[in-house]
Amino acid sequence: MTALPVAHPALPVVPERGGTQLRAPKPVIVVDTREQNPFSFARFQGWFAGVEKKPLPLGDYSVSGLEDVCVVERKNLSDLVCSFTVERPIFIQRLRRMSAFPDRLLIITAAMSQVKSRYEYSPANPNQITQSLIATLAGLRVPFLCVETHELGEEIVASYLYQVHLYHWLESNGHGRSLADDDL
């Protein structure tokens, strides 16, 4: 069965209280200027007030005003393999720093089956890379998601950043940490 992702929603989620929709401001996404193949987020203009490009102290993406609490690191497969082999000490240090952020995500633009398969361009062991990802999750508590395409990664990161902003806005405006009454 071939997966055919549906189009993204008009908004990822709409918060409500007592059946009434809350009007939250739109966030601004921050893209690190050093990101080599950045997500453009152009498809998600209705979700965000804008996209700002500037150097981030850590990671590739964040939300304006939340750079000290939210970090997203993106890796394609060759990047991931290189990061867990040749550049391992540097990458492990970055992951340790990420683990201190309340909102953190490692997004991999490759299917888990690709991570677990032999690499044409590297002698690296797929088991080592997979186990390093699991150790990142279990040991450092940095969650990761594998997505099959760059476009799907862009949507997942856009949705994640939108919702991180929304939860922070809800909490700071006295609405608690849920999108709807008795829900997530």
Described by strand count, sense and barrel closure, the largest sheet is:
3 strands, mixed
Distance between the termini: 31 Å
Spatial arrangement of strands, main beta sheet:
4-3-5
Radius of gyration: 17 Å
Write the element-wise H/E pattern from the N-terminal end onward.
EEEEEEHHEHHEH
**Number of H/I helices:** 5
Mean pLDDT: 95
Uncertain parts: none
Helix residue percentage: 25-40%
Computed structural class: alpha/beta
Q: What is the number of beta strands?
A: 8
Shape: globular
Strand proportion, as a percent range, falls in: 15-25%
Protein model, in words:
The strands form 3 sheets. A 3-stranded mixed beta sheet has the order 4-3-5, covered by helices on one side. Strands 6-7-8 form a 3-stranded parallel beta sheet. The chain has helices spanning 77-84, 88-99, 112-115, 126-140, 150-172, and strands at residues 16-17, 20-21, 28-32, 50-54, 61-63, 70-75, 103-108, 144-146. A hairpin with a 2-residue loop joins strand 1 and strand 2 (20-21). The mean pLDDT is 95. It has 184 residues and is of the alpha/beta class. It starts with 15 loop residues before the first strand and ends in a 12-residue tail after the last helix. Helix content is 34%, strand content 17%. It is built from 5 helices and 8 strands; from the N terminus they run E-E-E-E-E-E-H-H-E-H-H-E-H. The protein is globular.
